[in-house]
Amino acid sequence: MAIEVDVAILGGGPGGYTAAIRAAQLGKKVAIIEMDKLGGTCLHKGCIPSKSLLRSAEVYSTLLDASTYGVEVTEGAISLDFNKVQARKEGTVEQLYRGLQSLMKKNGIQIIQGKGRVIGPSIFSPRSGSLAVELPDGEMESVVSTNLIIATGSRPRVLDGLSPDGEYILTSDEALVMEKLPASILIVGGGVIGVEWASLLQDFGVQVTLVEAGSRLLPGEDTEVSAELARLLSRRGVRILTGVQLQTDTYKGENGEISISAGTPDGDVILTAEKLLVSVGRLPNAEGIGLENTDIRTKNGMIEVNSFGQTSEPHIYAIGDVIGGVQLAHAAAHEGLVAAEHISGLKPAAVEQHLVPRCIYSRPEIASYGLTEDGARTKGHDIKTGKIPFQAIGKALVHGDKDGFVKVIADRKTNDIVGVHIIGAHATELISEAALAGVLNATPWEIGQMIHPHPTLSEALGEAMLAVDGKAISF
């Protein structure tokens, strides 16, 4: 007999489980169908484990630099136990996993482990959207729902000729479970994942070469932020090559080393390392889930939805990485909230991608909200900008993290905040104030008038807001 619920959710990542909780809070009977572990990529193969490694790398780097703070450490007393680093990561993931399971139980959400596939009209339902679920034991189960939310996430993109083998060629999935650190690594792709891995591995003492096909790192971020990150990573010893075309047919992996030829603006080079990490983005998991049994439209492999998450079949919604947009866990979670509330007949505010803050957890951190300077001009804004370096902020000097800056972009005519870009220590914590300003349609002057406590790093944001109109005090 089929399992009948009000809302079925295909995928148990941040988007899926957040939607499930909100739907349950609104009185719906909910089931999540997840083929692996509840929590999805973010909890098990992405956000949480990678940030745990980044934190260990940051602590290790700080200890190596302890003398800067007047703390002398006996030579040879600092060592890295990578097994303990990995154990701490696994412990953090496991604690959060248990907590998530408790949340499902608390909200009465049914979890069905298995591979779900959308089916067309059947004896169970006169319309498409029911699910056929293959259980771990090979048996089949049917789930019939009034509404379906597809939240199947994404997977690492791979390059032809550089398929991951777990030994020489890795994606972030394989890198997260490395038993020991390589002496050297070639990272292919200078986007978010690439620069985070470059940062943490360099802090762990790995010799890192970071190559990017484009003209600069982080092509989606502001050009000044990109240049500052490249400068700071290079200063730490990361070798950065841009405008690189890899000749994948020359790849070799043998005797504990990989080699590959690459075309650069300065000529062909042969790149060598112990490992190669492919970090060239992610692909939506839209194949093999039965979309062909529906009238759902896709574009470039992503499910098309409206601003509430509805597909071209209004009773079926899609959220998270599978719809493209800002592929971040908090974006998926917000989309899940909106979808659940819309299903329940409420009137949530439509999802606006430009309101999603973006965070990169390298050292230094990067966070942004809204448009870049180039993007603002492309959209026709007559802009004015304010920029404050962290070296002008007392708390940054006290902490020993004076690199980076806060940049604010505003429309000259309307005085609206168009974008905020931060590179520096704790940038990912500071960006929330900027995002709130955007939600409230605040002007730079209004944020500048807010009393920022001293000494704090948040003063940089307040000063940058004042700098838009030439009224900054500290710089």
Helix content: 25-40%
CATH level 4 superfamily of the largest domain: FAD/NAD(P)-binding domain
Shape: globular
Q: Indicate the structural class.
A: alpha/beta
Write the layout of secondary structure elements.
Elements: E1 3-10, H1 14-25, E2 30-34, H2 40-45, H3 47-64, H4 82-106, E3 110-113, E4 115-119, E5 130-134, E6 140-150, E7 154-156, E8 169-170, H5 172-175, E9 184-188, H6 192-203, E10 207-212, H7 223-236, E11 239-242, E12 245-254, E13 257-264, E14 267-273, E15 275-278, E16 282-284, E17 298-299, E18 302-303, E19 316-318, H8 329-343, E20 358-360, E21 365-370, H9 373-378, E22 383-389, H10 394-399, E23 405-411, E24 417-424, H11 427-439, H12 444-449, H13 459-467
Parallel strand pairs: 1-2, 1-6, 2-3, 6-19, 8-15, 9-10, 9-15, 10-11
Antiparallel strand pairs: 4-5, 5-6, 7-16, 12-13, 13-14, 17-18, 20-21, 21-24, 22-23, 23-24
Helix pairs in contact: 1-8, 3-4, 3-6
Q: Quick summary of this structure?
A:
The chain is globular and about 70 Å long.
Features:
alpha/beta; Enolase-like, domain 1; 3 domains; 7-stranded mixed sheet; 5-stranded parallel sheet; 27% strand
What would you note in describing this structure?
The chain is an alpha/beta fold. It has three domains: 3-155 and 283-353, FAD/NAD(P)-binding domain; 159-280, FAD/NAD(P)-binding domain; 364-467, Enolase-like, domain 1, CATH 3.30.390.30. Helices cover 31% and strands 27% of the residues. The protein contains 13 helices and 24 strands. The chain has helices spanning 14-25, 40-45, 47-64, 82-106, 172-175, 192-203, 223-236, 329-343, 373-378, 394-399, 427-439, 444-449, 459-467; strands at residues 3-10, 30-34, 110-113, 115-119, 130-134, 140-150, 154-156, 169-170, 184-188, 207-212, 239-242, 245-254, 257-264, 267-273, 275-278, 282-284, 298-299, 302-303, 316-318, 358-360, 365-370, 383-389, 405-411, 417-424. Strands 1, 2, 3, 4, 5, 6 and 19 form a seven-stranded mixed beta sheet that branches. The radius of gyration is 24 Å and the shape is globular. It starts with a strand and ends in an 8-residue tail after the last helix. The model has no long low-confidence stretch (mean pLDDT 95).
